[in-house]
Structure to design on (599 residues):
């Protein structure tokens, strides 16, 4: 029976009078993929920022592997085993692509794990190869297309060898073909066995996404947020007929 | 044994140095610096080159902090002044010899780097620049407040020479410059340098990579302060006086101008700029009223037409990058010297 890797209890965050996230609680197992959906402004990205330590919750508790992580610095959280990607990609534009990934390979967590005899450059190349952009390793990150930048974000996130990845709109701005490729990469990553320790399990995932069709194929559970609150938490199949979910997307009386 | 090392040196020079104009320039510059006292014993010329060497260390240290790490410092004279005063006080009152007072002065500068670095961690851009600008002014106030210790307006004079002979002084300063710049260059082109670059590009993204950016920013402040401190200590013992001029705002801006002129985030560019601009300024001393005007025109011209700086611009004119392996090649080559790819 897999243990709970992440546990949120009554997490709340306000910006002035606006409650961006209100009383959110959920648990996830170490082999879960959770989809986080909701209309714009529902609080999805804020929740990701709260878990990753970019923002600190006003109240409530976030536990990772039974350890409270509220108030920890972002780099400490990453070194505990949570990594994340940004909704608006933030590459180091003037650095070569390989150097972008090398920064993650130089984190204390990554340095302790994996095939320690390998040079950092070789490790970074492995992650780029996984993401499918190893042929452009020496190019500057500023030369990459939108789709390749998303891949770079994923490569940088997995380079810390995390146990939980928070992906904020991984398919955003991608063409259908690119979306398909990215979805395949994410699924392959979740299966594990590719990185670091020889028989590693794939990381648990929280995916924030608007492309529901792709998300429903991948996620084990979907959490729907609206106005910062949980509307429902259900299996993807149940979501399609959920009245509350349809109402929060299309408005009351739409049915 | 000797034949083996001579052969190895010859092959390094032939295969690694003489293949690129920039490397040749650096090689001949080092040879010229080493051979200068043999060719000319003119005290004025040696004095100019010694001061240029000291300012080159100082400018490169600014480039390490502001160019590479993006922590814009408009008060870099603080580190220079702290070290100069520390070395002067140690030498004058406690009779420390220069070989001890200069490194201890540099360490005092590292402490100053910590003092500045910690409150500046949360600041960036204009706010950081203005905060750093205030520190040498504060220290200047302290210098004037305790004239019994610091000498006030007159400063501390009568310090020991770095070396009794002029040539000895020249070599100590020149070797210090070459070693300091080589160390800074090596640091910035290492993995540590990648992290400094990344801090300048996007600090939050680097935190997301699990890197403690606070630690690296403080390290950058301390390293930069150390090398600026070496320059400050050498300056104090070479001039044999330390005064409020070592903390002047003009000196802080001078170093920014040298850095931008030579090309920021290069180390070699900013250091090279001092060897161009400092002698030019000395040459124009015959027309003191036009000196600053001519200097300003040169800077404006460079900023307008060579925004990356003079030396990187010159390098781009004579060398081109291989599209495949990204190694530099002399511009007239048709194929890459490393991977034999066709050069565009």
């Amino acid at each position: 029976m897999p243990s709970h890797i992440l546990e949120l209890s009554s997490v709340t965050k306000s910006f002035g009078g606006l409650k961006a996230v209100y009383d959110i609680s959920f648990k996830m197992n170490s082999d879960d993929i959770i989809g986080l959906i909701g209309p714009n402004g529902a609080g999805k990205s804020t929740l990701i920022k709260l878990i990753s330590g970019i923002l600190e919750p006003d109240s409530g508790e976030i536990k990772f592997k039974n350890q409270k992580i509220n108030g920890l610095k972002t780099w400490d959280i990453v070194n505990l085993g949570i990594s994340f990607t940004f909704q608006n990609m933030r590459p180091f534009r003037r650095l070569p692509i390989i150097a972008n990934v090398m920064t993650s390979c130089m984190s204390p967590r990554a340095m302790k794990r994996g095939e320690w005899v390998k040079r950092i450059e070789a490790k970074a190349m492995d992650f780029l190869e996984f993401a499918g952009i190893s042929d452009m390793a020496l190019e500057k990150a500023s030369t990459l297309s939108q789709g390749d930048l998303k891949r770079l974000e994923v490569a940088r996130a997995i380079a810390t060898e995390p146990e939980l990845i928070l992906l904020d709109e991984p398919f955003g701005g991608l063409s259908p073909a690119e979306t398909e490729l990215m979805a395949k990469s994410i699924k392959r990553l979740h299966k594990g066995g590719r990185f670091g320790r020889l028989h590693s399990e794939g990381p648990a995932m929280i995916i924030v996404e608007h492309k529901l069709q792709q998300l429903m194929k991948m996620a084990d559970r979907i959490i729907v947020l609206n106005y910062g609150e949980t509307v429902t938490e259900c299996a993807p199949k149940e979501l399609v007929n959920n009245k509350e979910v349809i109402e929060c997307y299309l408005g009351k009386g739409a049915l | 044994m000797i034949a083996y090392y001579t052969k190895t040196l010859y092959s390094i020079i032939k295969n690694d140095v003489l293949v690129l104009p920039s490397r040749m320039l650096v090689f001949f510059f080092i040879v010229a610096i080493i051979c200068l006292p043999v060719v000319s014993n003119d005290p004025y010329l040696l004095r100019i080159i010694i001061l240029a060497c000291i300012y080159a260390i100082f400018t490169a240290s600014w480039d390490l902090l502001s160019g590479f790490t993006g922590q814009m410092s408009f008060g870099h004279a603080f580190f220079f002044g702290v070290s100069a005063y520390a070395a002067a006080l140690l030498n004058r009152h406690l009779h420390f010899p220069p070989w001890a007072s200069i490194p201890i002065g540099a360490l005092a500068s590292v402490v100053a780097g910590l003092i500045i670095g910690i409150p500046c961690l949360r600041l960036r851009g204009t706010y950081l620049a203005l905060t750093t600008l205030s520190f040498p002014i504060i220290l200047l106030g302290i210098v004037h407040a305790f004239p019994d210790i610091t000498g006030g307006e007159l400063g501390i004079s009568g310090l020991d020479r770095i070396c009794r002979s002029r040539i000895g002084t020249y070599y100590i300063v020149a070797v210090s410059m070459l070693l300091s710049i080589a160390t800074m260059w090596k640091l910035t082109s290492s993995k540590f340098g990648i992290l400094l670059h990344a801090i300048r590009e996007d600090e939050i993204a680097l935190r997301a990579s699990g890197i403690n950016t606070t630690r690296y920013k403080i390290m950058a402040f301390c390293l930069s302060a150390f090398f600026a401190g070496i320059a400050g200590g050498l300056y104090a013992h070479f001039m044999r006086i330390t005064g409020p001029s070592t903390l002047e705002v003009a000196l802080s801006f001078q170093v920014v101008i040298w850095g931008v002129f030579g090309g920021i985030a290069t180390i070699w560019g900013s250091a090279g700029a001092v060897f161009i601009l400092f002698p030019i300024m000395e040459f124009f001393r015959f027309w003191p009223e036009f000196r600053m005007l001519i200097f300003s025109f040169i800077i404006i011209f460079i900023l307008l037409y060579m925004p990356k700086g003079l030396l990187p611009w010159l390098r781009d004119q004579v060398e081109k990058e291989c599209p495949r392996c990204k190694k530099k090649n002399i511009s007239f080559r048709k194929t890459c010297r490393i991977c034999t790819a066709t050069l565009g």
